[in-house]
């Protein structure tokens, strides 16, 4: 299967290790994965802040860059939801039809397309999982990420109280409403600390970055890790 990695802006600039983890994981599962270097922003920021024309140009560029692949995999529920939900509205269903259905968030690609939940990972740590808003409400990932985590050798998955509540990031929401955003994140961090987890996992690094900042300021001692990074790990180390 010829698979393209849609890295996303946040991962490319701030969390490149997540992209490397996706490549490691998918190659281990037998995928022929490529990184189209002409890829750019998907346009989500532009559309969400009232610049649909700029977003439309980026959408058409995305469709050109990723045309012809069997699948396009993104380690981001947020950006995958942007492509799947907004592109048909931006460029029309006919123009989007060839590529948009092939765009998958990582966990749904693993579970629905490859048909696997045990990816051969080993990670002997206590982990709690935060389902981000776009993955939960936009893509409706359901229990796909936790089914994958439950198959990781040595991993203890601890339920997160109030898991479905927003962390307060919301892209520009955190910039426009900083006090509300910080209060929401404070509630989320309180729930995370109540689990006794060593690691907070999510499918979106933007939310992990937001929560991780508060965890660090509170010296909580909880690491943040993207789902891909845990699933790519095979060494039983502490």
Description:
- By secondary structure, this protein is of the alpha/beta class.
- The chain folds into 2 domains: 2-113, Rossmann fold; 126-232, 3-Layer(aba) Sandwich (Rossmann fold).
- It has helices at 9-14, 16-28, 44-48, 52-65, 77-91, 93-96, 106-113, 133-138, 144-150, 173-176, 178-195, 205-217, 227-232; strands spanning 2-5, 32-34, 71-74, 103-105, 126-129, 156-158, 199-202, 223-226.
- The strands form 2 sheets. A 4-stranded parallel sheet has the order 2-1-3-4, with helices on both faces. A 4-stranded parallel sheet has the order 6-5-7-8, with helices on both faces.
- Helix 12 (205-217) links the parallel strand 7 (199-202) and strand 8.
- Helix 4 (52-65) crosses helix 5 and helix 11 (178-195) crosses helix 12.
- It starts with a strand and ends in a 6-residue tail after the last helix.
Keywords:
Rossmann fold; 12% strand; globular; 13 helices; 238 residues; 4-stranded parallel beta sheet; single chain; alpha/beta
Itemize the secondary structure elements and their pairings.
Layout (H helix, E strand, L loop, with lengths): L1 E4 L3 H6 L1 H13 L3 E3 L9 H5 L3 H14 L5 E4 L2 H15 L1 H4 L6 E3 H8 L12 E4 L3 H6 L5 H7 L5 E3 L14 H4 L1 H18 L3 E4 L2 H13 L5 E4 H6 L6
Parallel strand pairs: 1-2, 1-3, 3-4, 5-6, 5-7, 7-8
Helix pairs in contact: 4-5, 11-12
Name the helicity range: 40-55%
Nearest-integer average pLDDT: 94
CATH class of the largest domain: Alpha Beta
Separation of the first and last Cα atoms? 34 Å
